C-alpha cells in the first residue's frame, strides 16, 4: 500500500508537469451540487457518486470528477480557449467491487478550444504518453467520430439517426435499434389516443404525437441488411494504427460517409507522430470507449497495466465536445482531456 | 451460544412467519404484552427470537448480529450490495409474495415496453427540460434493472409510501413498486409494462455468511433445520 502523502507529492509533481506545458491550475470544491451532475450524467451517477444532504444547500455530491465544474468555470469566464490542470480527490461509490478505491487522487489535463482539434488531441495524448513511458503501459485508442459519421450517412429517417446517436454508448440498445431498423415495420394496430384517464405531467397530446411518429415510422424503408453488416464490420476493426487506417479506407468504399472522419484520424496520427509518439506501434480500435466512456464523442484513449489486468486504467481521456455543449450551450467549447491516477502509478513504479 | 433468529416484528408478515414455524412444531410468540418487542421460542432450545422491522433484517444478517432471519427477497437485494456474498437463501416460505414492477399511466397507449419507455423518456426530457421521473423506494433494484436494460434519460425520485399516487400528484411520471394484486395499480390508472417485471419476491429464510457460527450456533441451527424439515 502506497502512503497517502507520497501519492499527494506525486500528484503535485504531475500537475507541475502539465503547468510546464502551459496549463493553468484549476481548483474546485469537493462538495458539488447534485442537480447539475444528475442532469448531465443521469441516474447512473447516483450509483457511482456519494450523495449527501445539506439542510440548506439540498442534495450535494462528493466530487466524482473535475470535468463538470471545470467546463462550468470555463464557460462562465466566457473564454474561447484555455488549458487547465488539476489534482485532487475524487470519490466513487463501489457497489460491486470492494477492491476498488472509493476515494483516490486524480490529476487532469484539459484543453478547450484549440484551432486544430487533432493537434489538441495529440498534445493531450503525447503529454500522457511521455509521463507514463517509464511504466511500460499498454495504450489503447479509438475514435467515436467514425461510428457517428457512419450513422450520419445512413439512408434512413432523421428520427432513427437521432435514436442511434443517442444510444451510441449503449451497445445492446444500439444493436437492437439497428436490427429493428433492418426490418419492415409490422402493421400492428396503432392504438386510439383517447382511451383511459389522463393523469400526470405527460399529456394526451404527447401520447398522440408519439403515435404519429410511430405511424410515420411505418413509411420509413428498412435499412439494407448489407448496411447493417457494414456497420458491424466497421465496429470490428482493430489493430496497429497503420493497419487500422488502411482497413478503414477499404471499409469507406462501401461507407463513403466515414471518409472525412478517416481523414481526421489520419491527421491525428500525423500530429501524434510529429510529437514523437510511435504511431506504427499504437493500438487502435473502432469500438474502444463505447461502453465505459459515455459522452466522449471523438478521440478516446486509455493506458492499461498489462501485467495487472485487475486494475482500472491508469489513465484515460478523450474528446468531449458534446458534453461541453450540454453544459455550456452555445458557449460550450470543443474540449479534450484526460486524467491520471498517481496512486496506481506509484504502485506500478513511477512516471517520468 | 444461542442462535439468534430474526423475524418481522409486526403485521401480516409476522403472523405468517409465526404460523409457518408453528406448523412445524416450533412455537414463536411475543413475550409479555403485544406491544413489547421481545419474543420467545417454544419447542427448540438455545434459540433466541429477535423481533425487527423487515427492512432491517438484511442489515442485521449481514452484520452477523442475527444468524438467521425472515425477510423478503426484495428487501435483501435492495438493502445489501452483492447480497449473495453476505447472506444465503435457505428456504422460500410461500407467503408474502410480491412482484416489483414498473408501471406507467394506463392512458399512455404508446408505451407498452421498456423500449417505448426509453424513447418516451428522451422525448419527455427534450420537451419538459428534466428527466422522466420514476417514483420508488427500491432505488438500487430499479436502477440496476434499468441500467441492464439500457434505459436512459430517467431519474428516480424517492417515495416511501402511497407510490401509486405520485403520478396523479405530478411528483413522478411513472412508478416502480411492489404489487401484490393489480387492483391498486388499476385504481390509480396505472399499468405494468409488458417487460417491466423487475423481481418476484416472497418471504424467505436467510442465513448470514458472516463468521459468527462458532460456539455451537452451527449445531443449534442444524438441529432447528431438521426440526423444521429443512435439513
CATH level 1 class label of the largest domain in chain B: Alpha Beta
What helical percentage do the residues of chain B reach? 25-40%
Low-confidence stretches of chain A: none
* Strand order within the widest beta sheet of chain B: 4-1-5-12-6
Structural class of chain A: alpha+beta
CATH fold assignment of the largest domain in chain A: BirA Bifunctional Protein, domain 2
How many domains is the backbone of chain A divided into?
Answer: 2
Which secondary structure elements does this structure contain, and how are they paired or packed?
The complex is a heterodimer of chains A (352) and B (231).
Chain A: H1 4-20, E1 24-25, E2 31-33, H2 34-41, H3 44-48, E3 51-54, E4 58-62, H4 67-76, E5 82-91, E6 103-112, H5 117-132, E7 138-143, H6 144-152, H7 158-166, H8 171-181, H9 204-217, H10 225-235, E8 238-240, H11 241-252, H12 259-274, E9 283-285, E10 299-304, E11 315-319, H13 321-328, E12 335-340, H14 342-348
Parallel strand pairs in A: 1-5
Antiparallel strand pairs in A: 2-4, 3-4, 5-6, 6-12, 7-10, 8-9, 10-11, 11-12
Chain B: E1 3-8, H1 11-23, E2 27-30, E3 39-42, E4 47-52, H2 57-63, E5 68-72, H3 73-79, H4 83-86, E6 87-92, E7 98-105, H5 114-128, E8 132-136, H6 139-148, E9 154-158, E10 174-179, H7 183-187, E11 190-201, E12 203-208, H8 217-227
Parallel strand pairs in B: 1-4, 1-5, 8-9, 8-10
Antiparallel strand pairs in B: 2-3, 5-12, 6-12, 7-10, 7-11
Q: Would you write up a description of this structure?
A:
The complex is a heterodimer of chains A (352) and B (231). In chain A, the strands form three sheets. In chain A, strands 1-5-6-12-11-10-7 form a seven-stranded mixed beta sheet. A three-stranded antiparallel beta sheet of chain A has the order 2-4-3. In chain A, strands 8-9 form a two-stranded antiparallel sheet. Chain A is built from 14 helices and twelve strands. By secondary structure, chain A is of the alpha+beta class. The two termini of chain A are 21 Å apart. Chain A has two domains: 1-136 and 305-352, 2-Layer Sandwich (BirA Bifunctional Protein, domain 2), CATH 3.30.930.10; 138-169 and 224-296, no CATH class. Chain A is globular and about 65 Å long. Helix content of chain A is 43%, strand content 18%. In chain A, helix 5 crosses helix 12 (259-274) and helix 11 packs antiparallel against helix 12. Chain B is of the alpha/beta class and 231 residues long. Chain B has two domains: 3-97 and 202-227, D-Maltodextrin-Binding Protein, domain 2 (3-Layer(aba) Sandwich); 98-201, Periplasmic binding protein-like II (D-Maltodextrin-Binding Protein, domain 2, 3-Layer(aba) Sandwich). Chain B contains eight helices and twelve strands. Chain B has helices at residues 11-23, 57-63, 73-79, 83-86, 114-128, 139-148, 183-187, 217-227; strands spanning 3-8, 27-30, 39-42, 47-52, 68-72, 87-92, 98-105, 132-136, 154-158, 174-179, 190-201, 203-208. In chain B, the strands form three sheets. Chain B has a five-stranded mixed beta sheet with strand order 4-1-5-12-6. Chain B has a five-stranded mixed beta sheet with strand order 9-8-10-7-11. The longest helix of chain B is centred in the middle third of the chain and has 15 residues, at 114-128. The model of chain B has no long low-confidence stretch (mean pLDDT 92). The interface between A and B is large, with 33 and 38 residues.
Amino acid at each position: 500500500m502506497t502512503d497517502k502523502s507520497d501519492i499527494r507529492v506525486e500528484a503535485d509533481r504531475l500537475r507541475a508537469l502539465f503547468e510546464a506545458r502551459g496549463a493553468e491550475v484549476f481548483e474546485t470544491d469537493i462538495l458539488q451540487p447534485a442537480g447539475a451532475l444528475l442532469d448531465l450524467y443521469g441516474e447512473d451517477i447516483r450509483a457511482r457518486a456519494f450523495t449527501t444532504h445539506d439542510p440548506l444547500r439540498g442534495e450535494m455530491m462528493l466530487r466524482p470528477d473535475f470535468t463538470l465544474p471545470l467546463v462550468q468555470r470555463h464557460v462562465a469566464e466566457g473564454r474561447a480557449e484555455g488549458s487547465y490542470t488539476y489534482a485532487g480527490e475524487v470519490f466513487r461509490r463501489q457497489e460491486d467491487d470492494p477492491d476498488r478505491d472509493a476515494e483516490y487522487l486524480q490529476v487532469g489535463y484539459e484543453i478547450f478550444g484549440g484551432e486544430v482539434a487533432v493537434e489538441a488531441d495529440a498534445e493531450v495524448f503525447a503529454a500522457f504518453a511521455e509521463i507514463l513511458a517509464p511504466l511500460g503501459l499498454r495504450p489503447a485508442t479509438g475514435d467515436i467520430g467514425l461510428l457517428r459519421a457512419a450513422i450520419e450517412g445512413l439512408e434512413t429517417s432523421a428520427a432513427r439517426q437521432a435514436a442511434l446517436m443517442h444510444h451510441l454508448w449503449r451497445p445492446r440498445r444500439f444493436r437492437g435499434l439497428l436490427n429493428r431498423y433492418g426490418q419492415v415495420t409490422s402493421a400492428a394496430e396503432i392504438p386510439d389516443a383517447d382511451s383511459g384517464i389522463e393523469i400526470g405531467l405527460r399529456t394526451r397530446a404527447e401520447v398522440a404525437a408519439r403515435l404519429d411518429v410511430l405511424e410515420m415510422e411505418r413509411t420509413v424503408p428498412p435499412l439494407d441488411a448489407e448496411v447493417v453488416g457494414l456497420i458491424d464490420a466497421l465496429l470490428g476493426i482493430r489493430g496497429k494504427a497503420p493497419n487500422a487506417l488502411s482497413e478503414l479506407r477499404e471499409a469507406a468504399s462501401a461507407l463513403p460517409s466515414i471518409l472525412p472522419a478517416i481523414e481526421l484520424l489520419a491527421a491525428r496520427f500525423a500530429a501524434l507522430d510529429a510529437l514523437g509518439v510511435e504511431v506504427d506501434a499504437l493500438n487502435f480500435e473502432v469500438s474502444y470507449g463505447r461502453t465505459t466512456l459515455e459522452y466522449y464523442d471523438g478521440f478516446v484513449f486509455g493506458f492499461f497495466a498489462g501485467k495487472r489486468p485487475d486494475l482500472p486504467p491508469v489513465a484515460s481521456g478523450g474528446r468531449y465536445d458534446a458534453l461541453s455543449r450540454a453544459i455550456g450551450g452555445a458557449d460550450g467549447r470543443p474540449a479534450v482531456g484526460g486524467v491520471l491516477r498517481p496512486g496506481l502509478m506509484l504502485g506500478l513504479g513511477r512516471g517520468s | 451460544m444461542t442462535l439468534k433468529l430474526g423475524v418481522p416484528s409486526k403485521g401480516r408478515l409476522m403472523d405468517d412467519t409465526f404460523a409457518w414455524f408453528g406448523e412445524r412444531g416450533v412455537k414463536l410468540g411475543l413475550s409479555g404484552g403485544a406491544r413489547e418487542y421481545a419474543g420467545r421460542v417454544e419447542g427448540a432450545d438455545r434459540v433466541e427470537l429477535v423481533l425487527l422491522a423487515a427492512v432491517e433484517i438484511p442489515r442485521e444478517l449481514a452484520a452477523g448480529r442475527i444468524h438467521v432471519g425472515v425477510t423478503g427477497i426484495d428487501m435483501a437485494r435492495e438493502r445489501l450490495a452483492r447480497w449473495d456474498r453476505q447472506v444465503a437463501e435457505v428456504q422460500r416460505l410461500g407467503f408474502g409474495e410480491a412482484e416489483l414492477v414498473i408501471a406507467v399511466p394506463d392512458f399512455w397507449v404508446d408505451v407498452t415496453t421498456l423500449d417505448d419507455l426509453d424513447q418516451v423518456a428522451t422525448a419527455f426530457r427534450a420537451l419538459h427540460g428534466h428527466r422522466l421521473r420514476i417514483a420508488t423506494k427500491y432505488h438500487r433494484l430499479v436502477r440496476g434493472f434499468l441500467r441492464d436494460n439500457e434505459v436512459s434519460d430517467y431519474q428516480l425520485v424517492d417515495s416511501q409510501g402511497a407510490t401509486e399516487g405520485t403520478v396523479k400528484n405530478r411528483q413522478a411520471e411513472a412508478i416502480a413498486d411492489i404489487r401484490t394484486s393489480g387492483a391498486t395499480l388499476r385504481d390509480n390508472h396505472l399499468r405494468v409494462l409488458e417487460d417491466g417485471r423487475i423481481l418476484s419476491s416472497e418471504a424467505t429464510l436467510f442465513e448470514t455468511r458472516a463468521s459468527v457460527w462458532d460456539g455451537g450456533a452451527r449445531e443449534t441451527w442444524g438441529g432447528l433445520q431438521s426440526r423444521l424439515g429443512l435439513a
